Amino acid sequence: MNGWTGNILRVNLSAKTAKKESYSEDFAKKWVGGRGFAVKILYDEVKPGTDPLGPDNKFIVALGPIAGIPAPNTGKAVVAAKSPLTGFYGDGNLGTRVSEQLRKAGYDALIVEGKADRPTMLHIEDDKVEFLPADEVWGKGTYATNDWIYGKYGKGVGVLNIGQAGENLNRCAVVRSLEGRAGGRPGMGAVMGSKLLKVIAVKGSRAIPQADPQAMKTLGQGDLKKVGRIDKESGWSIQGTTGVLSFCNEVAGLPVRNFRKTHHSDAWKLDGERLNNARVATYGCPNCTMRCGITIHDHEGRESELDYENIGLLGSNLEIFDLPQVGSLNYLCDDYGIDTMSAGCILSFYADAIDHGAVAGDFKFGDAERAKELLRMAAFREGKLGNLLADGSRRMAREFGHGSEAYAMQVKGLEVAAYNCKFIPGQALAFGVAAIGAHHREAWIITFEIKFTTRESYGPEKAAKVIELQRIRGGMFESIVACRFPWIELGWGIENYPKYFNTVTGLNWTLDDFWKVGDRIYSMIKLNYLREFPNVSREADYPPAVWFDPANADTDGPIAGKVLELEKYDGLLQHYYDQRGYDRRGIPTKATLERLDLSQEAAVAEKAAKLG
Amino acid sequence: MKIHVKMIGPLIYDVGFSEKNLEIPERTTAERLLELIRVPKQRPRIVTRNGRAVAPQEELADGDRIAVSPIYSGG
Fold first, then answer.
1. Interchain proximity A488–B73, CB inside 8 Å
2. Is the ipTM of this structure higher than 0.90?
3. CB-based contact (8 Å) between B54 and chain A?
4. What whole-number distance in Å separates Cα of residue A184 and Cα of residue B13?
5. What residues of chain B lie within 8 A of the CB of A250, using their CB?
């Protein structure tokens, strides 16, 4: 088998055992890697009802056939587990040298089971697997932990680690890597923490098996240079992702004041131009020639790496229009290892709930200093409030009551990314049907809606666009595993990716083959959801209720007086289900599952609930 | 007539300003405005007027707020 190592490393922290397991070529072709491997393994091995923070949950690191091989932009890894935030399959991807090092050590995936008896660093070096004490860094933030690992093994080592938020089982804790990367929004860091697993450090020395290594080297390295040239010509990385802030502000799609408003006259203070002017350094993932990590000095003088999502949610959404202060909130999230997006939504929800009398408290929009204290309380689960903040906005709303569920900005428990869809129906659908909850990673169609369709439309063309992007972004890129940015931001041809895949595997796949894998992955995540929530209804795919509330309409600007219409949204959702081959609950029908070669998995799901 | 123009992202560095008020002739189209402010033709972009997409041949009006943005894809 070329392209894949054909091996998975299974580690049990309770028994301190490690086992190299091989998998078949059929498995490789059916699931490709990354998210595909993770969802299948978790479906087969983690029973429904399992406590996500208990020893029976499994933490997966999964790579794909082009991960770690020099080509645009292959330095990413998928981390996955049953989510403590959403209660079903959760995952994320992050830039890390693990992508290359784990593959060179001879594995395409790592499965971590059980629970250690003390804070542990899992150290993998080819066939050697060690369970080393990590007491020295337990209680420390991710920056100090990262330095500690580099001190032991040097900078070339592949690292995944958690901060205090993961240790304290904050349900929004992420996994961290390199000097500023984070992934696994739905609490993947808390799953590591629940296993007392502070660090994974990996070093490999073998060649990754490839059908034609010389051809791939020429192709991949040449294309990395080309992507770098296109980036320079376009100027994209001058502002990176943060250019989108001004665009969202212009078209009334910016989160402001817990998504109550869609634009703000002070938004310019946080925009890409200001960020670029304040730039201290630039960071990127391995195998990247369009580095998007821009750091500034935060309010306390520390280097903090900002992008659009964290500026939108920790800045405008909290009405904090002071870039260094936003940098401080971002730094704390990164050091504690909390998801910046969920953190922004949780704090904005808390301020909004106080404003609306759902709960008594002393946090107001715009109060950066209090926000810093609240982040600390959430990371360490200090007191009743810290515990509430650490459990995410959905659980907070259930506790607060008084109708606050309507403005807890989440779908399926995962907080919404930084796009205010008060009057952007297609993007609202993209959040509603995102596989793991309201993530922007899988489909983003705002420019498409505004430039190429009618913004008001709830037509089938928007559902089709969401599916097209889910196949590419949530399916192909998450399984091969690579970063989508060269394609999505620089227009690097999508056809290049099957070319890389075919060169390393020796196969002859077309994009259609990847779409089928993508559809299979989405169906599997739905089956996973069904097994956990057998009484599922289509309302699970609705975005936050406040976007439908006429009382929440803008009073000025481009969408004054407008909000989403529930009946029409439901019609758009049905277009999506029809095109996907899902039933009225949003679950794949038996016919769809058979078409995707998932009959066996369907039979397992039917033990929990009937399929359509 | 007077309009306000805002450039977004790397387009700022193409035209040399981030935003300003402009005096332009009556019946100037969106496409003509881009020529006047020298937005490179090869740059993919979306032009909005008061937050709504505007077609190249549409005529602008006094008091319009025009934004010129790259085609972002949301990261």
1. yes
2. yes
3. no
4. 35
5. 6, 8, 48, 51, 65, 67, 69
| Gap between the Cα atoms of A609 and A531, Å rounded | 7
State how far residue B71 is from chain A, nearest Cα, in angstroms: 7
- Is A307 in the B-facing interface, judged by CB distances under 8 Å? yes
Q: How confident is the model at residue A451 (pLDDT cuts 50, 70, 90)?
A: confident
Are the C-beta atoms of A9 and A110 separated by less than 8 Å?
yes
Separation of alpha carbons A292 and A286, rounded Å:
12
Q: Could you tell me which chain B residue has the CA closest to the CA of A248?
A: B51
Q: Does A423 touch chain B (CB under 8 A)?
A: no
B51 to chain A nearest CA, in Å? 4
3-state percent helix, strand, coil for chain A, nearest multiple of 5 = 45, 15, 40
pLDDT (0 to 100) of residue A452 = 85
- For residue A451, give the nearest of B13, B50, B53 by CB distance: B53
**Maximum distance among all Cα pairs of chain A, rounded to whole angstroms:** 65
Mean of the pLDDT values across residues A373-388? 98
- Mapping DSSP to helix (H, G, I), strand (E, B) and coil, where does residue A11 land? strand
pTM of model > 0.95: yes
Residue-wise pLDDT tens digits, A47-97: 999 999 999 999 999 999 999 999 999 999 999 999 999 999 999 999 999
Q: Name the closest residue on chain B to residue A441, using Cα atoms.
A: B75
Alpha-carbon span A350 to A259, nearest angstrom = 13
Distance between CA atoms of A87 and A528, rounded to whole angstroms? 10
Question: What value, to the nearest 5°, has the Cα angle with vertex A579 and ends A414 and A62?
Answer: 45
The stretches of A278-417 forming alpha helices (DSSP H) are 308-314, 323-336, 340-355, 368-380, 383-389, 393-400
Residues of chain B with Cβ-Cβ distance to A455 below 8 Å are 52-53
Choose among B72, B12, B17, B75: nearest CA to A293: B75
Could you give the dihedral angle defined by the CA atoms of residues A168, A170, A174 and A180, in that order, rounded to the nearest 10 degrees? -70
- B55 in contact with A, Cβ within 8 Å: no
Whether the predicted pLDDT of B75 surpasses 90: no
Contact A243 B8 (CB under 8 A): yes
Class of residue B43 by CB neighbours under 10 A (exposed 0-12, middle 13-18, buried 19+): middle
Chain B contact for A485 (CB, 8 A cutoff)? yes
Average pLDDT over residues A469-495: 96
The owner of tokens 């078949």 is A24
